[in-house]
Amino acid sequence: MKKYIYSFALALIAAVGLTSCLNDLDTAPLDDNDLVETEVYKTADGYMGVLAKCYGSLILTGQKGGDGGNGDLEGANEGYSGYVRLMFYLEELNTDEFLMPSSSNGLRKMLNLQWDASNAPVITWTYQRLYMCIAYCDEFLRQCTPEKIQERGLQSELGGKCHEMRAEARFLRAYCYAQLCNLFGGVPYVDENTQVSDLPSQMTRKETFEYAEGELKAILGETTSEDVLGDAGATEYGHVNKAAAWFLLSRMYLNAKTWIDTDRYNDCLTYAKKVIECGKYPLASDYRHIFLADNNTCQEIIWPLVQDGLRAQSSAGTNFYVKAFVNGAMDGLYQTGVETRGWGNVRAKMTLSDKFDAADVAFSLTDTWGNNKNDKRAQFMTALSGQKKETCDDKGAMTSTFTCGYGYIKWRNVTKDDKVCASGTQYTSIDFPVFRSADAYLMAAEAILRGANGTRTEALNYVNEVRERAYMTGKYAKTGVKEGVGADITDSELTLDFLLAERSRELASEITRRTDLIRFGKFTKGNNWDWKNAVFAGADVEDYLQIFPIPEAELTNNSTLQQNPGYPVNKK
User: Fold this and answer.
1) Are 48 and 56 in contact (CB under 8 A)?
2) Which of 502, 505, 549, 568 has the most crowded CB, counting CB atoms within 10 A?
3) How large is the greatest C-alpha to C-alpha distance in the chain, in angstroms?
4) Mean pLDDT of the residues in the chain
5) Rounded to whole angstroms, what are the CA distances from 517 to 258, 500, 503, 513, 528?
6) Which of 538, 560, 570, 504 is nearest to 97 (CA)?
7) Model confidence over 324-354: pLDDT tens digits?
8) What is the DSSP string of 62-109?
9) Rounded Cα distance, 178 and 146, in Å
């Protein structure tokens, strides 16, 4: 059984009532009260339980597990409201990668890029989910101080860990603000010093960016702070460390030109190279192993959201990534790890499968892992009866038939030896890789192509390293697996357009695609895909959709908030 970061979270938090009922932007600090202080913070395990809840708010959906009720977000569909599933809707469904025919909870609006501030609940739930995590982190930071630990007689157990635990909570909070900056722009600011009666003021997008950046630099020890993260590779599995902060800064700097109109490509390269050169997170020897039920052994993953089929159950997270991507018929063709429990409501758009050679896309019943492919990342289901690549029926209309559009099967709830894990098939045990080092390689290469102080040879080497692993050639060759042909590209082939396509081949479904397309200027105009703007061939949309609206209910609750340009304001 994998080490489990949420060991105490569900029982402790449910017991003391730190559940969410975020009533719209009810993100002010949770009240200090006797029950919390006496029942939770009197032990070291209690502190670890609340820190686990900070992490767990990005993978769990409620207080009981398994969609058992008492969900985190009031009024939300519990299964839909998990962080990774929500981010799939906001970062993947509206791009050139995946399709869901459902119209519930605003999903058709997301698919068609036709949302506004009131017609897509998944936008509101994402906003609330991020602020919920911030609220938990703020509560932990109020309680985890050297003074309070001393008062509670926990100095011997926690005194030496206090500042590192605080740094982890500050990282999670900074991550949430960075995502809010990405998705919503300028957002309300709350921290551990905000009072319950305070009306949060709205930062600009630049201020939101700079706040997250400042927090990350502080917990890296680059500015004056006692709260410093553990060293890269030196912390317990599932906990963040300096490598995660380097990675997040690199991602923020890569997008800084889009987010705050500032060129930070040199900084992006600096921090990406820190991740690469620390040597603690080498590329996995086999790309396919990153997305399996025993991927807790994969060194490439810098920060996983830990999931376990017995103790972290929900219909979000990687449970969604397996079940939504397969249907029952597929389980008879390869080992899905969920048997016939697949929902079958996600399939690849043509623009995703077309990024690979057709021969690699084809699924073979005699080679279910794709050992004989050149590019092992081309993991699609094409073998269902009557299946076709097009995501429409013969009349050009959208259909819920799973044979319209290929399945995408890189997520499998099995171990490397193709066995169902001990936790069973009802829920998945695949950890979600929020950050992994292959992305750092691609960020470094892109930063150089955009003007950072590196050489094209350096950028080419980064890209070809990722591709050689995907094709399992050179040092990644393995007995019994075809050494792929065509991995390395030449300098003349290394363009920004190639990198955008390569990021899709490498990172499809890993909640970065919308951000990538915006950065490359190809999200709203001049780059169309299945069902964009509600037509099969795709059509351009307005540029204001590059950022999501502040949810309408938040504007109602806080009259000082300003809506993002392009969206109508309907304050009540």
Assistant:
1) no
2) 549
3) 72
4) 91
5) 11, 8, 10, 6, 11
6) 504
7) 999 889 999 999 999 999 998 999 999 999 9
8) BSSSTT-S-BSSTTS-TTTTSHHHHHHHHHTTTTTSEE----GGGHHH
9) 28
H or E element: which one contains 140? Answer: helix 121-143
How far is it, in rounded angstroms, from Cα 340 to Cα 257? Answer: 46
Contact call for residues 458 and 522 (beta carbons, < 8 A): no
Q: Which amino acid is at 257?
A: K
Within 13 Å, how many C-alpha atoms sit on residue 281's CB side? 34
The 8-class DSSP code of residue 348 comes to E
CATH for 1-161+191-196+535-563, among 1.10.287, 1.25.40, 1.10.3470, 3.30.450?
1.25.40
Mutual angle of helices 162-184 and 242-254, in 10-degree steps? 20
Under 8 Å CB-to-CB from 561, ≥6 apart: which residues? 188, 202, 550, 554, 555
pTM comes to: 0.94
Helix (H, G, I), strand (E, B) or coil at 407: strand
Q: Of 19, 527, 10, 84, which Cα lies nearest the Cα of 304?
A: 84
- Distance in Å from the first CA to the final CA of the chain: 51
Task: Specify the amino acid at residue 203.
Answer: M
Can you give the pLDDT at residue 38?
Answer: 65
**CB neighbours of 193 closer than 8 A, spacing ≥ 6?**
none
Neighbours of 230 (CB within 10 A): 17
Q: How far is CA 398 from CA 92, 108, 336, 480, in A?
A: 18, 11, 26, 41
Determine the length of the chain.
572
pLDDT at 328: 84
CA-nearest of 383, 333, 377, 334 to 357 is 377
pLDDT tens, residue by residue, 243-301: 999 999 999 999 999 999 999 999 999 999 999 999 999 999 999 999 999 999 999 99
Is 73 buried (19+), middle (13-18) or exposed (0-12) by CB count in 10 A?
Answer: buried
% of the chain exceeding 70 in pLDDT? 93
Residues 176/163, Cβ–Cβ less than 8 Å: no
State the virtual CA torsion across 333, 335, 338, 344 in degrees, nearest 10.
-40
Cα separation, 326 vs 410, in Å, equals: 11
- As a whole number of angstroms, the distance between CA 558 and CA 131 comes to 15
> pLDDT value at position 75?
87
Residue 419, C-beta contacts closer than 8 angstroms, at least 6 positions apart: none
Residue 7 predicted with pLDDT over 60? no
